[in-house]
Each structure stands twice: as C-alpha cells, then as structure tokens.
Amino acid sequence: MLACARRAVSMASAASLDLGQLAQEAEALASAVRGALGPRGGQVLLTRPTGETLFTRDGRRVLEALSLAPPTARMMVACVSMHHSMTGDGAKTFIILLAKLLRGLQAVLDKREGSPFCEDIQRGERHQRSCHSLKQISQSIMTFQTLLLDHVMAQDLRKHFLSAFSNWEGEISRDTIESILEAYFCGRIGYSDQKLLSQLSSDFYYKCIPFKNDRNEMLNLVNEYFVELHFAVTGLPVSNSRILEGLILPRDFAVYCPAGGDIRILIVTESIHSALSAPGLEFVINAEAQYQASQIWITKRTEAIMKHLQNSNIKVLLSSVKQQEIVIYYAKINGISIVECLSSEEISLLCKITGISPFIPTWDNIHSEISETMIAKFCQPLVVGSKRFVHLGLTRTCTFQPHCVIFCGPVHGVTEQHASAFHGAFKMLQQLFKAVDLTVHCSWQHSDTQQKSIMENISCNGDKVSDQQLKTCMAETEKQFIDSSWVGENPSCTQTVVQKSSNLAMPIENFERDFMFSALIHRGSSLRRVQKLPLKCKHPSEMWVKNTSETIVNNHGICNEAMTAKENTTTSVVSKEITAAKDFWKAGNPFNYEKSYKYTVQSYTNLVIQQGSVLPVGGNFEILLHYYLHSYAKQCQEPKITVVSTVIAEALLSIPKILYRTTNKNSFPQVYFKATSALRTNQQLPMSQQGLESVYCKYQLVVSVLHCLTKLLTIDLIIGIRRLPQKTEDNDSEDDL
Amino acid sequence: MSRIEAKKPSLCTSEPLTKEVVSYSLSVLSGILKSCYGPTGRLKQLHNGMGGYVRTTSQSSVLLGGLSITHPVLKVLTASVQNHISRFSDCGLFTAILCCSLVENFQKINFAACTVTKISRHLLSLCIDYLKSEACVCRIAVDFDSIKTLLSLVHSVLASKPACMLNKTETNHISTLVLKAFLLTIPHTVETNVVLGRCVIVPVKDKRVMDSTVFPGLLIEVPAFQLARTFPIKRISSSTIKMALFCISMSGDISNTGEGTVIVHHGISLEVAVLDQLLSLGKQLVNDQVGLVVCQKVIHPSLKVYLKEHHVITIDRIGVSMMEPLSQMTGSQPIASLHSLSPTYYGSLKDLRTESFGSKHFLHLIPSDTLVCSLILCNRNEMAWDELKVACQTAEHVLQLTIKQPLALLGGGCTETHLASYIRHKSFTLPTSALKAIDCSWTQYQLVADAFCHSLECVARCLEHDDCEILTDTVYGHFWSVQSEFPSDCNWSDLVLKCGCGIYSKQQNLNWRVLQSQCTPFTPQSCSNESFVNSTDHLVLDCFTAKCSGLQVAVETANLILDLSYIVEDQN
Fold it and tell me: Mind listing the pLDDT tens digit for each residue in B513-535?
C-alpha cells in the first residue's frame, strides 16, 4: 500500500511554491485591472465564448474572464470573487494590494541578512528553508491581522472617521447617500452615466424605504431579489433608465381583463384544472359514458373553482405553472386576469412582500372563503421597448415599498454593467451600516495572546478605576475565557463566575493592552446590565444611551482614557477632536459634519468601526493606514511584526499612486506630502475630491487580502493530478482489508 | 472524462483603439454603410459562397444581420445599431454612420476619453433639447387633417430603399397602400387606451407591383379544390354570419390524462367517446346557427363532414399568429372547451367571399368593424419582394411612432446640416459657467464640438454618391447638392434648385458655401411654413422619434468605444 502511494506521488507533477512566481501571477492579474481603477479608469470589454460582448469595470468580472491556468492564480481570483460577492466592491484594489504585498515580501526574503524570518534555521535544504520562512511570515501576518489591525484602527484611524448619519437616530441625508453612491459608481461604470446612476440608485433607496429604521431589512431584500427587481431594455438611450413604482413581471398576461379599484390577487403554484389521474393513482375506465362523464366533471370542477374565485372578488391569478387552456377560457369568462410561469424567486418575493402563502384549490376550499390574497392598486400591461410586461402595483405590507428599475442602454453589455453596478452599490450600502465590534475579536485575541509579553502596563490608570469596576472587569475576563472555549452558559453560571473571579486577586498585568482594557470595561458595564435586564440591546447607539444613564462619567472617561493611554486627560482629547471637526466644517464642506463628527467622537465605545463610518475618497484610507502602520512599526519591539507592518504599509500606498497617476494638478507625491504633514501636526486630512466611501468596506478589504495572503503562503507543494479532486474517499476501508 | 478540456487562457489587448486592426476594420465597415445610405445608395449582395440564398439589399437591418463581425469593438457598434433597429425600424444607417464618424473624428483629436465624453454628452443634450423645443425649425408638426405629411413620411422611407426596385409611380402606389392599410387599423371609437389593429402582409410574388392592393379584413389562403366546393353560406341576416373560434385541438385526440395510470377495459374505445363528444358539439354549433367554424389546430374529418352537410364552413390549422387578429376583428372569444359552449363567445362577420390572386386562392373574411386589414404585396422578383416587405413594415412602424409623437424631422440631409450649424453657433457663444461645469477649456470644447459637427455633416455628405458637390446655405443651414461639372466662373445660385428636404427653393437672399469648409458660425433661421404647405411635391421627412433616439444611441455608443482601455477575449 505504501509503495502504491509513493508511485502515485511520483506520477503526479509537483512543484514547490515560489514567492517570486506568485508575485508575478498577481502582478499579471493586477495589470489587467489597473487601467480600470479609480474615477479616471477606462472600461474593459469582455467577450464571452458565445460571442456576447460585455462592458465592465468590475475587477471580479475581468479577473474571472482572464481564465489563467496557474492554480495559485486561480486561487487568488477565487479569493477576489469571494470578497466581491460579499461586499460588492474592492476587487481591483484587492488584487493590486495582493500583488504589491507579495512583491514586498519577496524583497524581504531576498535580502536574507537581518531578516527576522531567515535567522532561525541555518541548515537544511534551500527549499525547506524558504518553506519555513514562508510559514513564519504567514503566521506573523495572521497575528498582525488579528491583533494589530484592530488596534491601529481603533486607536489611530478612528479619529479620522466621519459619520454618514446626520443625527442620533441614524438618519442619513440624501446628499451623503448621493456622494457615497457617486464615489462608488465612479469606479464601476463609464463617465457619462455615473451621475445618472447615482441619482437613480439614491432615488431607489429612498423610494423603497418606508421607515428609516427598516433600512437593513430593505437592503437585504433588495440584494436578495435584485434579479426580480430590475430588467433591461436594449436599443434605447441610457437616459431613459428609470424607476417604476410596483413590480414588473417580465411576461405578458395569459388573459387580461381590465379591473379598477383595489385588485385582489391570488397566488397559485399548481394547475387548477385537474387531470384524469394523479401520480400514484390508477383510474379505471369501465365504459365510454364514464369517461365522458368524468371529463365533464373535471370541466365543471374547473368552472366551479373559477366561479368561486370570481365570487370572492379575485381579479388576478398569479401562477407559477402553465395553466390549461380551459382555465384561461373560464378566467376570461369570469373576468379574471392570469399571469403564468412565474419563477420560484418571483413567487417567494411576492410572498415575502405581502406575507401571504399560495392558494391550493381543493374540494374543501372551493366553497370556503379565500383569505390569502394580496391587494394591488393596479395590475396592468406595460409596454417597454416592444415587449409587453405585467405591471403590478402592490400596496405595501412589509418593510419594502415595491419599486423596480428599468435599465436602458444601446447594447446588452451596457445594461448588464449598470445592473451589476447598481446591485453592487446596494451591497456596499449594506456594508456601510455594519460595525466592527472590538469585543468580537477580543475573545479571540485573548486566548491568542495569553502567553505574549505585555507591552504596555496600564497600572498608571489603576488609581482612577474604581474597585467595583475592576471586579467587573475581572469577571468579564473570566467570561471571555468561557466565550473563547465555547462553553454554553446561563446567567446563573455567569453569576457564580463573577463571584469566583472577584475573589481571585488577578494581577492587573493580565489586561494586556490598553484598547482591550477599554473594551473589557465596556463589556463589563453591559454585563452588569445584563444581570439586571433580561434582554441585551444590540443596537450600538441605543446601548450607548443606556450606558449613559448608568455610569456615564466613569465609564466613558475610562474608555477614552484607556484608548489613549499616552494622553494625559480625557477631556483634552475630546475637545481637540471637536475643534478639529469645527475647522473641518468651516472649510466649506457641503455636509453638516460638525454635528455628526461630534457624535462620532462622543460615542467612542466598544466599536472599532461605528455604523455608517465613512472617509473621503481618493486613497485617504490607504494613506492613513500607511502612516499609522509606519509609525507603529517604528516603535514595535517585535521584529517580525515590524517587517510585516512595514511591507503592508508600503503596499497600501500603491492604491493612491495609481489613483493620482494622470492628474497634473494632484500628482501622487504632492498628495502624499500634504497628507503626512497634516497628520504630523494633528490636522484633518486635506480633501481633494467630493465623495465618501465606507470604512467598513475598506477594513474588510484589508482583512480579506491578508487572509488570502496567508492562505497562499501556507501552501508548500503544488501537486498536479489527472482527475478531479474528490471530496470524500470511500474506498479507504476496502484497501485496508 | 475525455470531453473535459482545459480552458484556454483569454486573449488580452490593452489600448485597443490605438491598434491598426481596429481602425482598419472600422473604416471598412463605415465604408460599406456609407455607400448604402440614401435613395441613390449602392446595393450590396450578400451570399455565403456555397450556393445559398443571395440577398440584394441596402438596408441596415438586413446588412448588419448578414455580416459576420468578429472584432469585439465592431460587435459593440453593430449590436447597438441592431438594437436600435429592433426598437424603431428606421434610421439604422444614420445611427451606424454617425457612430463610425464620431469614433473616427474623436480619435483624431486625441483627448482623454473622459473629456471627450463629458463634452460630447453636453453637445448631445444641446441637440436633444433643441430638437424637442418649440424653437426648433428643422422639425414640422404632423397634421392629421391632411394625409400629405403622412404620405411624405411613407414616401421618404420607401424612396430611401433602392433595392426595392420601384419606379416613381410604383413608389407612389405602394406609399398610398401602406398609408391606407395603416388608417384601416385605427379604431373608430377612441378610448383612453388605444389599441391599433393589425396589418397582415400577404405575399404574391408573380404579379406586378401595381397589382398590389389592400383589403379590409383577413385573407386566409385555402387550397383551390376546397374553394371549388364552397356553397351558399348560412347567414343569420343579410349582413351577419355567426362564427365560432376554437383554440384547442378538435382532432379527437385524448386530452392529457395526468401523471397516474389510466386503465381502459377491453372493448372500450376512448376515441369513440371523444368523437361522440365532438359530434355533439357539432350538433350544438348547428343548432346555434353558426355559419363558420375556425380552429387554430386540426378539426377531425368526421366533424368537418358533419358540419359541411349542415352548410357550415370550416377552416382549420390557421396557426396561433392569426388568432389575435381574428378574435379582434370578429369579436369572438377563442373557445377552449368541448363541453360547454356559451353563445356569448360567438363572433360575427359581415361577409365571406372568395378571392384569387395569381395562382393563390383566398377566403376573404370581411368584418363589420375594420381593425384588421390585409396588404397584398406583389413584386416580380423574390429578392426585391423581401426588400419591399421590410420597407413596408418599416413605414408602418414609422407611422405608428408618428402617431405617438406627431412630429417629423426634415430629411434629405437638411436636419444634419442644420443641427451642425446650430451646434457651431451654440458652442461659439457658450458661457464660461457652462465650461466650468464640464471642467474643460474653451479650446477643448471647440475642438470636440467641431468634431461632432463634422460627423453630422459627414452623414449628410453620404447621401450623395454620384460625383456631386455638397453645399450649405448660410441662412437656414440646409443641404443643397449640385453636379460637380460646372463652369468655374458661374455662381452657386445658377446651379442649385432645391434643398435636400424640398422645403426651400432657390431664393435671392441666400448665400452658399461648400459643406465642411471653414465659416463663421451663424444662427440658423426659420421661415414661414407656408411655402411647403402650398407646394405639391413631396417633402423628404424622417421619423422624429427614431432619429432622436438614433442620435443619442450613436453618441453613447461612440463614447463607450472611446472609453475602452482593455479587451479580454475568451478563446474557448
């Protein structure tokens, strides 16, 4: 058996992972999308094997269309696709960043001397050595991503974030939404239609949302059913694209009987006309008369059902299957319109919006009342281009006000591009309203970093922290342990743990990092509340409000203090931020930043990224992260982390470099110089462009790239096999016999 | 397993527009299209080189459908023109030529794609705003009180298709027929939602063009032997024939029996049972005094015989396409049940006759309300007939579009030259605030505007294929053509007769210059419309909706093509 396995290995072609080659592949991929990056990027034309052409500036589409052969390149593309399908954005930046990172790491490895990744082993084969150092790099990157990134985001970057919300309730102004969307479309479609599409999508956003609080549900629904909520018409100018009230079913009526007023609609998922025999049943014919009689009976039954529908004042029948001609005939007699062959997605969308379930005609309910109906304001044919569609104006019963988009364009390639960019924009908005909770990562970090040396001591804060809070902190630490080990717990259990841990005099050095400390205190306070209130509030702003009522001074003060351990007093930090915000506002910004910015500053709580955090476009995030990673790397004691964060910091700069490649007024060195000098003097970044982008998306992008990188670097051998990799091996047991 | 092949990597081209292959194939395509344009356009013969069907044409729809284009850039161009044609039928060549020349001219000035896009977008909005405004003098309102402008529209469409091989009288004849057929499809009573009827084109290919004619109602072709055995039809009154229209099969087949099993005992014939049902249905039809039974599918011969014995005419296998006009015309609802017949679903006909044309025989169904008509289209030559059919359909579509928006643009190149002089004038006097909004310099704007106007004039220029000089006047900005063999000392005014659209004739106050020569911008003016209302000749008119949309599509497509930075071709 062993010999057999050996032979199998020798037959397959195997190659070790070469960092240089990886970098080359990533660069080849990056070069295909580089031209399309940023607001001045051009379009890419894709042709499919079927001969269709497609315009795109979507990095994912381009990369997938390249269909490169190397398995590692395919893996990179798969990572990009995964990231893109999640966030709807950032595919181009992803691959460019990845290429730069790989190149940067290769340079580090090539240097050899002084590199922290090469000193450990001096003997052994070259291959083994490189393999080992790759493994080490990937580990350091993982550590960086789990520990350091959040730290830098929370401590340094956060003060630069702006909030998209204009008030406490999380309302978002139209101007802000438009500038976020415009910035998004700048990178996704051709110049001429950017304005149009950003207006169209912000219109759609406001039209679909009945109450501002149902934002997330609405976005989920739009993203899930986007295929049903849009359709394309070719041959018309792009300017004819518009939003229509109601839903459109892309097919004509099988029967159309005009009706006015409120129209009652019924959904059916099976044929109304029953057949002579059903599956699994036998129908025996004894005489010709019997056959005729049964035929007549079936017809009469259909007639009775349709009559009953008419009596129940049903005007429209939406069917997922094709109905028999006889049904259509009786529908026409009874003044009922029928739309056939609805897809299952359309049926589920309709059911979701209206909250009804399909009607199943049986003998029993032919005479009973029909309750599962929806009401529409109108249901009429709509002619778009030369095709006839069904236009359905449903009255709202849930969190989504039904609207749909019509995309017009000269060719299919353009309408498809617009539709996918539109869909991406709504995915992006969904990301915008997400927050990164530090505590989520904390439980991780905690177990990870148990053994790590303590870098900063927070004992200086000790005297300001009241005893009671310290106790809860310890309790919280204990709870974190339990969390990380996935033990299910109930309140009473926690209670006992609290008791126990408060008795144990845990050394204060165990609270490793300042930022974590703040989070822990916060969690502690919320834990206290959990003990009082049975329900834990999830909405961050709400949570904050509740916290204020309890321990506003202590809690808030400590949070800020802990976060900015090097600063002397809390108040000075906050006041500085506010003055900075005021300056920013005075600079003639169209949005009311003062208010929103204050909000951001005040609500420094347990979130690395607040809901709705945004930054101005134009590589600001990259420059900021670059700057702070660099300054972190300078102080960092751990050589591996220093190297990794320097490489990442350098790679981040490649994005603004490409963005400012052509403009004469703002060349990259100028922009970079202005930004860093502003940061050194603690000022706001200069803003060269209008438009905002979601910080969450950017953060997610960096995390995804680092994940992809670690995944790539942990491979040591690439083995080519002849057949498809099998997921399960069932024949193992047989071999053993 | 052996069928699985590794995917080939894709072929990538960066900066495709700078490649020679693109500009070469673009110039070939635009050469083909330009030479087809207008009433004097050259014909193209399409064949596959293997003895297949040969088509002579000058129409964009046929031409672009026939050409097999491989380069992705050109594919985009042709696809967008074809989509335009499928929506509007008309102005396909205009769109294609304009798009080609825009790409060529914009490439020459070699600015960043985004600058060109922004400026051309602005120019386009100037054009569209002007065309849609009341101040526009290159459009005329269509007057439905007289058929003159409508006839001019149809005439212009037919005249611009030289491959139909029509002479002047034939063009006039067909124009009148098309307009007549269109008028027959308009309902008498106008409700809020107007639904136009249908015009069915019936091919007769062995007669002269002048034999073409229009019938109200439907013509259904029947074999000659069936026609010979017709008998006096059963009527309810002198002007009403009751008819029944069936949309299900009456052939006596067993309808679907479901997914389970059906067991039939020995000696029982389901066919007999169904036939019994059919015959009882026939009996009811006879009792209800139905004179004509039409079925979309097949009627069982026994039923046919039975009905014939009772003097009921049967027509079967008319197909699904005829069902809608039939039910529209006669008011009968398609019946889908063999068991219950409701007398309310019978329709009525005014009369039923037999007609024969050449070698073909027809049953002519004459309705009391004409919403449906049949246009018998004759042409001696098969190829020319095909071309004529497409031209007639285009003309009908143009009329439908004109009813929706009762405007027409001056044809014969006058709209293009007029629009070019309007844009020149507008861009010359553009306020600096507008420039700031577009974020470009005055020179940039002028250069792009010049390329834009040049492209418009280039389209007008393509109307003349014989060695002609093209002039434009400096008052109206219209299109004038003169023969090129003229003595060098004579005045332009001695040579010109009429402008392209026919609205202006030679006047004292006009000055001419060669089209596309340098000149100072001027405001194109209008004159009173009386001159053309009184004139007896046809004006050359274009469909307003189709041309506006064509203009937009051409500019948008040209911008798309210019914006390309990369091409990825899938090689699988």
Answer: 888 777 777 777 765 555 555 55
B12-138+410-569 and B143-216+377-405 in the same fold = no
Nearest to B87 among A36, A235, A662 (CB): A235
- Residue A136 at interface with chain B, using a CB cutoff of 8 Å: no
Q: Which of B357 and A113 is assigned the larger pLDDT?
A: B357
Q: How far is CA A534 from CA A529, A531, A537, B238, B504, in A?
A: 9, 7, 10, 88, 88
pLDDT at A548 over 60: no
Give the closest-approach CA distance of B515 to chain A in angstroms.
29
The domain defined by B143-216+377-405 folds into GROEL; domain 2 (3.30.260)
Q: What's the CA gap between B67 and B74, in Å, rounded?
A: 11
**pLDDT digits 0-9 by tens, A329-387:** 888 888 899 999 889 999 998 888 888 888 877 656 666 777 778 888 888 888 877 78
> Could you tell me if B244 lies within 8 Å of chain A, comparing CB atoms?
no
Residues sharing a CB contact under 8 Å with residue A163, sequence separation 6 or more, in sequence order: A596, A597, A599, A600, A610, A612, A613, A614
A-chain CB neighbours of B88 within 8 Å are 235
> What ipTM is given for this predicted complex?
0.88
Q: Determine how many CB atoms are found less than 10 A away from the CB of residue A9.
A: 10
Q: Which of B113, B261, B276 sits opposite A282 (nearest CB)?
A: B261
Scanning B63-102 for CB atoms below 8 A from A yields: 72-73, 75-76, 79-80, 83-88
| Domain map (residue ranges) of chain B | 12-138+410-569, 143-216+377-405, 218-257+266-369
| Pairwise CB contact (< 8 Å): A45 & B73 | yes
**Rg, C-alpha atoms of chain B:** 30
Task: Judge whether A333 is closer than 8 Å to chain B, CB to CB.
Answer: yes
Amino acid in the structure at residue B211: D
Pick among 3.40.50.720, 3.40.1210.10, 3.50.7.10, 3.90.1490.10: CATH of B218-257+266-369: 3.50.7.10
pLDDT category at B212 given cuts 50, 70, 90 is very high
Residue numbers of B between 408 and 437 with CB closer than 8 Å to A: none
Residues 6+ apart with CB under 8 A from B251: B297, B298, B299, B300
A248: nearest Cα among A174, A349, A361 = A349
Q: Using one digit for the tens of pLDDT, what is the confidence trace for B398-426?
A: 999 999 899 999 999 999 999 999 999 99
Size of interface A-B (CB pairs under 8 A): 221
- Between CA A501 and CA A517 the distance in angstroms is 17
The DSSP-derived string for A695-730 is: HHHHHHHHHHHHHHHHHHHT--EEEE-SSPPPS---
Q: Residue A288 is nearest to which of B118, B273, B335, comparing CB atoms? A: B273
A496 and B CB contact within 8 Å:
no
Share of chain A above pLDDT 70, in %: 66
**Among A residues 411-470, those touching chain B with beta carbons less than 8 Å apart:** 411-414
Judging by beta carbons within 10 Å of its beta carbon (0-12, 13-18, 19+), is residue B28 exposed, middle or buried? exposed
Q: Does position B77 have pLDDT exceeding 90, yes or no?
A: yes
Q: Beta strands of B158-316 (E only): which ranges?
A: 198-204, 213-216, 218-221, 241-246, 261-264, 292-295, 313-315
**Nearest Cβ partner of B263 from A62, A65, A285?**
A285
Quick check: A290 and B273 in contact, CB under 8 A? Answer: no
* Å between B172 CA and nearest CA of chain A: 29
Residue A561 and residue A557: Cα distance in Å, rounded?
Answer: 6
Q: Which of B72, B260, B568 sits opposite A66 (nearest CB)?
A: B568
For the domain made up of B12-138+410-569, the CATH class stated in words is mainly alpha
Cβ of A153: how many Cβ atoms within 10 Å? 23
Q: B423 by DSSP, 3-state: which?
A: helix
